[in-house]
Amino acid sequence: MIARGAMLGPNQPVILHMLDIEPAAEALKGVKMELMDAALPLLRGIVASTDVAEACKGVNIAVMLGGFPRKEGMERKDVMSKNVSIYKAQASALEKHAAADCKVLVVANPANTNALILKEFAPSIPDKNITCLTRLDHNRALAQIAERTKVHVSEVKNVIIWGNHSSTQYPDVNHATVQDKPVREAVSDDEWLNNEFISTVQQRGAAIIKARKLSSALSAASSACDHVRDWVLGTPKGSWVSMGVYSDGSYGIQPGLIYSFPVTCEKGGWSIVQGLEIDAFSRDKMDKTAQELIEEKELAKSCLN
Protein backbone atom coordinates (compact mmCIF):
# COMPACT_ATOMS: atom_id res chain seq x y z
CA MET A 1 0.00 0.00 0.00
CA ILE A 2 2.80 2.43 0.94
CA ALA A 3 4.72 1.60 -2.24
CA ARG A 4 1.59 2.19 -4.32
CA GLY A 5 1.04 5.68 -2.91
CA ALA A 6 -1.80 4.91 -0.46
CA MET A 7 0.10 6.57 2.39
CA LEU A 8 1.89 9.56 0.86
CA GLY A 9 0.07 10.14 -2.41
CA PRO A 10 0.58 8.91 -5.97
CA ASN A 11 3.59 11.12 -6.76
CA GLN A 12 5.79 10.57 -3.72
CA PRO A 13 8.68 8.11 -4.26
CA VAL A 14 9.52 6.06 -1.15
CA ILE A 15 12.42 4.09 0.30
CA LEU A 16 11.12 1.37 2.61
CA HIS A 17 13.11 0.52 5.74
CA MET A 18 11.91 -2.79 7.16
CA LEU A 19 12.99 -4.03 10.57
CA ASP A 20 12.37 -7.49 12.00
CA ILE A 21 13.81 -9.72 14.70
CA GLU A 22 16.71 -12.08 13.98
CA PRO A 23 14.61 -15.31 13.78
CA ALA A 24 12.56 -13.67 10.97
CA ALA A 25 15.59 -12.61 8.88
CA GLU A 26 14.95 -15.17 6.11
CA ALA A 27 11.25 -14.28 5.86
CA LEU A 28 12.24 -10.60 5.68
CA LYS A 29 14.50 -11.42 2.70
CA GLY A 30 11.47 -13.02 1.05
CA VAL A 31 9.40 -9.88 1.59
CA LYS A 32 12.19 -7.81 0.01
CA MET A 33 12.25 -10.14 -3.03
CA GLU A 34 8.48 -9.82 -3.44
CA LEU A 35 8.62 -6.03 -3.22
CA MET A 36 11.31 -6.01 -5.93
CA ASP A 37 9.29 -8.41 -8.09
CA ALA A 38 6.20 -6.20 -7.87
CA ALA A 39 8.14 -3.58 -9.91
CA LEU A 40 6.41 -0.73 -8.08
CA PRO A 41 7.13 2.61 -9.78
CA LEU A 42 7.20 4.63 -6.52
CA LEU A 43 9.56 2.25 -4.72
CA ARG A 44 13.08 3.74 -4.98
CA GLY A 45 14.88 1.55 -2.46
CA ILE A 46 14.52 -1.15 0.20
CA VAL A 47 16.47 -1.58 3.42
CA ALA A 48 15.67 -4.93 5.06
CA SER A 49 17.47 -5.35 8.36
CA THR A 50 17.48 -6.95 11.80
CA ASP A 51 19.69 -4.11 13.05
CA VAL A 52 17.55 -1.41 14.65
CA ALA A 53 20.16 1.34 14.07
CA GLU A 54 20.42 0.54 10.35
CA ALA A 55 16.63 0.36 9.96
CA CYS A 56 16.06 3.72 11.71
CA LYS A 57 18.78 5.61 9.83
CA GLY A 58 17.36 8.80 8.29
CA VAL A 59 13.69 7.73 8.39
CA ASN A 60 11.07 10.46 8.03
CA ILE A 61 8.09 8.27 8.97
CA ALA A 62 8.22 5.36 11.41
CA VAL A 63 5.29 2.95 11.67
CA MET A 64 5.86 0.84 14.77
CA LEU A 65 4.20 -2.55 14.26
CA GLY A 66 6.40 -4.65 16.55
CA GLY A 67 5.11 -5.50 19.99
CA PHE A 68 4.74 -8.46 22.29
CA PRO A 69 1.19 -9.90 22.13
CA ARG A 70 -0.62 -11.01 25.26
CA LYS A 71 -0.60 -14.80 25.48
CA GLU A 72 -2.76 -17.15 27.49
CA GLY A 73 -2.02 -16.99 31.19
CA MET A 74 -0.12 -13.71 30.95
CA GLU A 75 -0.89 -10.85 33.29
CA ARG A 76 -1.17 -7.29 31.93
CA LYS A 77 2.04 -6.46 33.80
CA ASP A 78 3.95 -9.25 31.98
CA VAL A 79 2.88 -7.90 28.57
CA MET A 80 3.60 -4.34 29.65
CA SER A 81 7.12 -5.12 30.85
CA LYS A 82 8.00 -6.87 27.56
CA ASN A 83 6.65 -3.94 25.55
CA VAL A 84 8.38 -1.40 27.76
CA SER A 85 11.77 -2.95 26.92
CA ILE A 86 10.94 -3.21 23.17
CA TYR A 87 9.81 0.43 22.95
CA LYS A 88 12.64 1.72 25.10
CA ALA A 89 15.18 0.16 22.67
CA GLN A 90 13.36 1.31 19.53
CA ALA A 91 12.90 4.83 20.91
CA SER A 92 16.63 5.10 21.58
CA ALA A 93 17.40 4.01 17.99
CA LEU A 94 14.94 6.57 16.55
CA GLU A 95 16.39 9.24 18.84
CA LYS A 96 19.92 8.58 17.54
CA HIS A 97 19.34 7.72 13.87
CA ALA A 98 15.99 9.01 12.53
CA ALA A 99 15.57 12.29 10.64
CA ALA A 100 14.97 15.34 12.84
CA ASP A 101 11.42 15.72 11.45
CA CYS A 102 10.52 12.03 11.95
CA LYS A 103 6.80 11.35 12.42
CA VAL A 104 5.99 8.25 14.48
CA LEU A 105 2.83 6.12 14.40
CA VAL A 106 2.59 3.36 17.02
CA VAL A 107 0.31 0.47 16.01
CA ALA A 108 1.38 -2.36 18.36
CA ASN A 109 -0.66 -2.75 21.54
CA PRO A 110 -0.97 -1.32 24.12
CA ALA A 111 -0.61 1.39 21.46
CA ASN A 112 -1.25 4.51 23.56
CA THR A 113 1.13 3.47 26.33
CA ASN A 114 3.78 2.15 23.91
CA ALA A 115 3.70 5.61 22.30
CA LEU A 116 4.13 7.21 25.73
CA ILE A 117 7.20 5.03 26.46
CA LEU A 118 8.63 5.89 23.05
CA LYS A 119 8.12 9.60 23.78
CA GLU A 120 9.94 9.22 27.10
CA PHE A 121 13.04 7.67 25.49
CA ALA A 122 13.16 9.78 22.34
CA PRO A 123 13.09 13.24 23.94
CA SER A 124 14.34 15.10 20.86
CA ILE A 125 11.36 13.93 18.77
CA PRO A 126 8.69 16.65 19.25
CA ASP A 127 5.61 15.64 21.30
CA LYS A 128 3.45 16.42 18.28
CA ASN A 129 5.36 13.89 16.17
CA ILE A 130 4.44 10.85 18.28
CA THR A 131 0.98 9.40 17.73
CA CYS A 132 -0.83 6.08 18.02
CA LEU A 133 -3.40 4.39 15.82
CA THR A 134 -7.08 4.81 16.63
CA ARG A 135 -7.98 5.37 12.98
CA LEU A 136 -8.83 1.67 12.74
CA ASP A 137 -11.51 2.15 15.43
CA HIS A 138 -12.64 5.36 13.69
CA ASN A 139 -13.02 3.48 10.39
CA ARG A 140 -14.85 0.63 12.14
CA ALA A 141 -17.33 3.15 13.58
CA LEU A 142 -17.89 4.74 10.14
CA ALA A 143 -18.51 1.27 8.65
CA GLN A 144 -21.05 0.30 11.34
CA ILE A 145 -23.04 3.52 10.82
CA ALA A 146 -22.89 3.16 7.02
CA GLU A 147 -24.16 -0.41 7.22
CA ARG A 148 -26.95 0.54 9.63
CA THR A 149 -28.17 3.49 7.51
CA LYS A 150 -27.54 1.71 4.16
CA VAL A 151 -25.32 4.45 2.72
CA HIS A 152 -21.80 4.37 1.31
CA VAL A 153 -19.17 4.78 4.03
CA SER A 154 -17.89 8.01 2.39
CA GLU A 155 -21.22 9.65 3.32
CA VAL A 156 -20.62 9.19 7.06
CA LYS A 157 -18.46 11.90 8.63
CA ASN A 158 -17.03 13.07 11.95
CA VAL A 159 -17.42 10.14 14.29
CA ILE A 160 -14.96 10.36 17.19
CA ILE A 161 -12.96 7.75 19.04
CA TRP A 162 -12.08 9.07 22.49
CA GLY A 163 -9.37 7.56 24.67
CA ASN A 164 -7.52 4.29 24.66
CA HIS A 165 -7.18 1.83 21.79
CA SER A 166 -8.74 -0.84 24.01
CA SER A 167 -12.20 -2.07 24.94
CA THR A 168 -12.76 1.09 27.06
CA GLN A 169 -12.50 3.42 24.04
CA TYR A 170 -15.60 5.54 23.42
CA PRO A 171 -16.95 5.71 19.85
CA ASP A 172 -19.01 8.93 19.88
CA VAL A 173 -21.58 9.82 17.19
CA ASN A 174 -23.02 12.96 18.80
CA HIS A 175 -21.26 15.25 16.30
CA ALA A 176 -21.29 12.87 13.33
CA THR A 177 -23.42 13.08 10.19
CA VAL A 178 -24.84 10.78 7.53
CA GLN A 179 -25.39 12.59 4.21
CA ASP A 180 -25.15 15.85 6.24
CA LYS A 181 -27.91 14.75 8.66
CA PRO A 182 -27.05 14.14 12.34
CA VAL A 183 -26.35 10.44 12.90
CA ARG A 184 -28.88 10.21 15.76
CA GLU A 185 -31.57 11.48 13.37
CA ALA A 186 -30.47 9.21 10.49
CA VAL A 187 -30.28 6.08 12.66
CA SER A 188 -33.23 7.04 14.90
CA ASP A 189 -32.42 4.31 17.43
CA ASP A 190 -30.65 5.69 20.51
CA GLU A 191 -30.83 2.32 22.24
CA TRP A 192 -28.68 0.77 19.46
CA LEU A 193 -26.31 3.77 19.29
CA ASN A 194 -25.72 3.86 23.06
CA ASN A 195 -25.22 0.13 23.50
CA GLU A 196 -24.73 -2.33 20.64
CA PHE A 197 -22.94 0.12 18.34
CA ILE A 198 -20.43 1.08 21.05
CA SER A 199 -19.69 -2.50 22.11
CA THR A 200 -19.40 -3.69 18.47
CA VAL A 201 -16.70 -1.10 17.78
CA GLN A 202 -14.97 -1.75 21.12
CA GLN A 203 -14.93 -5.53 20.58
CA ARG A 204 -14.33 -5.62 16.82
CA GLY A 205 -10.67 -6.60 17.15
CA ALA A 206 -11.60 -9.56 19.37
CA ALA A 207 -14.35 -10.60 16.93
CA ILE A 208 -11.81 -10.65 14.08
CA ILE A 209 -9.37 -12.75 16.13
CA LYS A 210 -12.21 -15.18 16.88
CA ALA A 211 -13.11 -15.49 13.19
CA ARG A 212 -9.61 -15.45 11.64
CA LYS A 213 -7.60 -16.86 14.57
CA LEU A 214 -5.29 -13.91 13.85
CA SER A 215 -5.56 -10.21 14.61
CA SER A 216 -6.61 -7.52 12.11
CA ALA A 217 -4.14 -7.26 9.22
CA LEU A 218 -5.59 -5.66 6.08
CA SER A 219 -7.82 -3.20 7.98
CA ALA A 220 -4.98 -2.21 10.33
CA ALA A 221 -2.60 -1.62 7.39
CA SER A 222 -5.23 0.37 5.52
CA SER A 223 -6.00 2.61 8.50
CA ALA A 224 -2.28 3.15 9.21
CA CYS A 225 -2.03 4.49 5.64
CA ASP A 226 -5.12 6.67 6.24
CA HIS A 227 -3.65 8.03 9.49
CA VAL A 228 -0.31 9.05 7.96
CA ARG A 229 -1.83 10.30 4.70
CA ASP A 230 -4.20 12.70 6.50
CA TRP A 231 -1.44 13.77 8.91
CA VAL A 232 1.01 14.57 6.09
CA LEU A 233 -1.35 15.75 3.35
CA GLY A 234 -4.17 17.23 5.49
CA THR A 235 -7.76 16.32 6.36
CA PRO A 236 -10.57 17.25 3.96
CA LYS A 237 -12.18 20.61 4.72
CA GLY A 238 -15.05 20.37 7.19
CA SER A 239 -14.16 16.94 8.54
CA TRP A 240 -11.97 15.49 11.26
CA VAL A 241 -10.39 12.14 12.06
CA SER A 242 -9.42 10.34 15.28
CA MET A 243 -5.77 10.12 16.32
CA GLY A 244 -4.07 9.08 19.55
CA VAL A 245 -2.09 12.23 20.40
CA TYR A 246 -0.34 13.88 23.32
CA SER A 247 -3.00 15.47 25.55
CA ASP A 248 -2.68 19.19 26.25
CA GLY A 249 -5.54 19.10 28.77
CA SER A 250 -8.32 19.58 26.18
CA TYR A 251 -11.73 18.25 27.27
CA GLY A 252 -10.44 17.81 30.83
CA ILE A 253 -8.10 14.94 29.88
CA GLN A 254 -4.95 14.74 31.99
CA PRO A 255 -2.09 16.44 30.12
CA GLY A 256 0.69 14.08 29.08
CA LEU A 257 -1.46 11.05 28.28
CA ILE A 258 -1.55 9.76 24.70
CA TYR A 259 -5.32 9.90 24.22
CA SER A 260 -7.48 9.66 21.12
CA PHE A 261 -9.11 12.96 20.17
CA PRO A 262 -10.87 14.33 17.08
CA VAL A 263 -8.20 16.20 15.09
CA THR A 264 -7.83 18.16 11.88
CA CYS A 265 -4.51 18.10 10.02
CA GLU A 266 -2.85 20.77 7.91
CA LYS A 267 0.70 21.28 6.58
CA GLY A 268 2.00 18.18 8.33
CA GLY A 269 0.61 19.13 11.76
CA TRP A 270 -2.51 18.18 13.73
CA SER A 271 -4.82 20.20 16.01
CA ILE A 272 -7.43 18.91 18.45
CA VAL A 273 -10.94 20.02 17.45
CA GLN A 274 -12.11 22.39 20.17
CA GLY A 275 -15.49 23.48 21.55
CA LEU A 276 -17.52 20.28 21.05
CA GLU A 277 -20.37 19.90 23.50
CA ILE A 278 -19.96 16.90 25.80
CA ASP A 279 -23.06 15.42 27.45
CA ALA A 280 -23.06 13.49 30.76
CA PHE A 281 -23.14 10.06 29.02
CA SER A 282 -20.06 10.97 26.96
CA ARG A 283 -18.23 12.55 29.90
CA ASP A 284 -18.54 9.34 31.91
CA LYS A 285 -17.19 7.20 29.03
CA MET A 286 -14.34 9.64 28.28
CA ASP A 287 -13.26 9.69 31.92
CA LYS A 288 -13.34 5.87 32.22
CA THR A 289 -11.01 5.37 29.27
CA ALA A 290 -8.73 8.17 30.59
CA GLN A 291 -8.59 6.39 33.95
CA GLU A 292 -7.48 3.18 32.23
CA LEU A 293 -4.68 5.12 30.50
CA ILE A 294 -3.55 6.63 33.82
CA GLU A 295 -3.38 3.10 35.29
CA GLU A 296 -1.43 1.82 32.24
CA LYS A 297 1.00 4.72 32.56
CA GLU A 298 1.61 3.83 36.24
CA LEU A 299 2.06 0.16 35.31
CA ALA A 300 4.60 1.07 32.59
CA LYS A 301 6.44 3.29 35.09
CA SER A 302 6.65 0.44 37.60
CA CYS A 303 8.03 -1.86 34.86
CA LEU A 304 10.71 0.73 34.05
CA ASN A 305 11.68 0.95 37.70
UniProtKB/TrEMBL annotation:
<dbReference type="InterPro" id="IPR011274">
    <property type="entry name" value="Malate_DH_NAD-dep_euk"/>
</dbReference>
<feature type="domain" description="Lactate/malate dehydrogenase C-terminal">
    <location>
        <begin position="134"/>
        <end position="301"/>
    </location>
</feature>
<dbReference type="InterPro" id="IPR001557">
    <property type="entry name" value="L-lactate/malate_DH"/>
</dbReference>
<dbReference type="Pfam" id="PF02866">
    <property type="entry name" value="Ldh_1_C"/>
</dbReference>
<dbReference type="InterPro" id="IPR001236">
    <property type="entry name" value="Lactate/malate_DH_N"/>
</dbReference>
<comment type="similarity">
    <text>Belongs to the LDH/MDH superfamily. MDH type 2 family.</text>
</comment>
<dbReference type="InterPro" id="IPR015955">
    <property type="entry name" value="Lactate_DH/Glyco_Ohase_4_C"/>
</dbReference>
<keyword id="KW-0560">Oxidoreductase</keyword>
<dbReference type="InterPro" id="IPR010945">
    <property type="entry name" value="Malate_DH_type2"/>
</dbReference>
<protein>
    <recommendedName>
        <fullName>Malate dehydrogenase</fullName>
        <ecNumber>1.1.1.37</ecNumber>
    </recommendedName>
</protein>
<keyword id="KW-0520">NAD</keyword>
<dbReference type="InterPro" id="IPR022383">
    <property type="entry name" value="Lactate/malate_DH_C"/>
</dbReference>
<dbReference type="InterPro" id="IPR036291">
    <property type="entry name" value="NAD(P)-bd_dom_sf"/>
</dbReference>
<feature type="domain" description="Lactate/malate dehydrogenase N-terminal">
    <location>
        <begin position="16"/>
        <end position="130"/>
    </location>
</feature>
<keyword id="KW-0816">Tricarboxylic acid cycle</keyword>
<dbReference type="Pfam" id="PF00056">
    <property type="entry name" value="Ldh_1_N"/>
</dbReference>
<dbReference type="InterPro" id="IPR001252">
    <property type="entry name" value="Malate_DH_AS"/>
</dbReference>
